[in-house]
Amino acid sequence: MSGSEQLARQMDQALASCVHCGFCLPACPTYLATSDEADSPRGRIVLMRGLSAGTLSPDDAAVAQHLDACLGCRGCEPVCPSGVEYSKGLEAARAMLARRRGIPFVARMVLAVFRRKWLWRPIMAMTRMLRATGIPAQLAGSGRLGFMMGMVAASRESRVKSRELRVERQGKNSRLSTLNSQLFTGCVMQGLFSHVHDATRRALEQAGYNVQEVRGQGCCGALHLHAGDDEGARALARENLAAFRGTEGPIVVNSAGCGAMLKEYAHLVEDAEDFSARVRDISELVQPDPSQLSTLNSQLVAAYDAPCHLQHAQRIHAQPLAMLKSVPGLTLLVPPGSSQCCGSAGIYSLVEPGLSREVLAAKIAELAALEPRPDVVLTGNPGCLMQIGAGLRAAGLDIEVRHPIEMLD
Amino acid sequence: MTLLPHGLGQRLAAIVGDRYTRLRPGELAVYGQDGLPAEPSPPGAVVLPGSREEVIAVVKLLHEAGVPWVARGAGTGLSGGAVASSDSVIIGLTRLTRILDLSVGSRRAVVEPGVVNARLSAYTIPHGLVYAPDPSSQTACTLGGNVAENAGGPHCLKYGVTTNHILALEVVLPDGSVVQLGSPSGDAWGPDLVGLFVGSEGMFGIATRITLRLVPVPEAVRTYLADFGSVRAASESVSAIVATGVIPAALEMMDQACVRAVEASIYAAGYPIDAAAVLIVELDGSREGVAADSDVVAPLLAAHGARQLRVADDPAERARLWQGRKKAFGAMGRIAPDLAVQDAVVPRSVLPDVLDRITVVGERHDLVVSNVFHAGDGNLHPNISFDRRDLRRTAQVHAALSEIMEACVAQGGSITGEHGVGADKRDYMPLVFNAASLDAMCRVRRVWDPLERANPGKVLPVNACREWRAGGVE
User: Fold this and answer.
1) Residue B155 and residue B281: Cα distance in Å, rounded?
2) What is the pTM of this model?
């Protein structure tokens, strides 16, 4: 019982400063999709306050529906004049709902897999084998299966990039590496985007860092925390803290969602302050020298898409753009909707596929209408890469997706 | 607990679809307030029609079923006007978001009521045109709501409020019939029904198509930030500027409590937090005109004791100064969880005295009063921050609000400048209108809505119409 009281208190504290002004409404992708205030941050704050005060029941299907429908993109937080800590309130509300009604089946399965390395690693390996067959690229489309195949296909290393490019680049690692750093490898990034990890390591070495491998690390637990499985998230946080114990220097992340989570471990478990203070997004560390970069990307037109957990949660926006502006000859577009969520949101695209696709549709429409037409969309989060990649394929658009750090190769 | 006729929910859903019919307690709670912090009043149902045809069908159905209803935009209003009781239905217009026409040559646009104010200007600015009325909530509020409330905003000092920018309307009357008011060219003959409809606070019907006037983006803009050691010095310089004959595009004032809340927020604009008050003075027009006005205004501000004068000539710096001002209301949550907002208008000449009086009232009740307002047209917004869980304080807040309102009226002021009367200021109406005037308003209302089913219980004092009718005033 004290647990739910504690959750109610966390909700009250996080949401206390909301004066109901409604300035968050236009920043909310689900409100823009449904036009229903129950799907807006302010509306969800009413639901959460009702839960904590006991005037609304966690058994009210409407309460669960609209809190479940939140992407957790945190687009409402940076626009809030009163600094409401929306996501902290949401975490508590979801934990409260999860305790009452359990976590939905699909979500439970996914979360169980990512709790255990011996489960997700073989699944990722099988996905890679499937991807290598080229079948997902063939089956990519707009139906449920086609979209999932599109997601798998989108995780593939870019066709444009060539092997000699990397060879050329490796010869340039001339600086002495005296500073230590560690790469946080995560789950999906490790399983499907190891080429992004390689590019990250090369960029770090170029920036003068020695990149140490850290054994025993795993999923960051963000998926679990956002779905209401706060216990699962804590267990994973403790595993990662243990794995990085004894290391020093920046803990480098190239996945926006993981980075935001790692930086907030201190809210979740004890003795995590030092760890969280060391966490850096790759774009915070790398400021490349244009003269050192290949000119092979110079023909490309790229559209930047800001991952929510980079822009809203970590408030990192200028750094990736500065990094990309140093790429010789690259034409960089930042569409007005760049900071709008793509609808991926961790496991949201699996558990709320309808609304996820509606939110994505606005993004794809904007990308399709861009002038000049981009060759590639750059975004620093695995979920966004796969979601936008699948959306582009479903729309029949020949636009690639890549992680920004790959442009430094 | 819904008090609607049995089966009404299904009949509404048959028009707009299940997805856009809201009947469950959680969903109704969400619509229990608008931007005015007040006791929540959940409606009996919420419908979100997706087209003007669906709006018409919904209004007809409610008319036949004898059910009252309230039209609502984004729910950012500050008078409790877009809130319904449990025997009523909220008709949400947020799905009607199309800009139907833009005619650059004749400087007008046709929009649906759910179009967000700032979105219209974002759409027209590349064509050199802007929609001038700019309420502080313009990033979220809808144009339909602006029409209902006759919304103002900082730039209405020079350009006029919403009513000066609405040319024609298509209106669904409370019986479901559709009328066209005004003419697209803006020179309609006969009674000015558009003028009557604008500011009717949802009592006359629902505007489903709005034809608005756009103005050219000014050639030059210069924005001053002046800070003062006393509120009186700031308000005296407001009167002095207006007395020169220069009409600034905007003339806004914020006091220290307000400045500090903004400076603690993401919208921090670099206002000096040790100033007793800051003024934002914006001049716009031709290059020569702005230069000439600057030569008048800048020395005048200095002569009235401005400690510092910051000038913003570039758009980014100007936007920063304005963001701070426009998000000030939302930043008040940093002071306390609840906020009471006033909207009185007083003659500019008495601004200094009225502000002194507000300070005295606040101090006597030991309340945090912060002022952020349109000084140029004397439209005050004293905000009182409080925590509604503290019942004793809440009672003090209400006492202080009444005293402030009475002081404004005593100085020749009115009870609302731009937020509307709604539910919040309904009981102040007899302060400024006698029974015959209120009765006249009731009669006008019944011309549009004989059964008084559109936004019942707002604006006109409770039972006023019935009492006066019974009392034989007719």
Assistant:
1) 10
2) 0.93
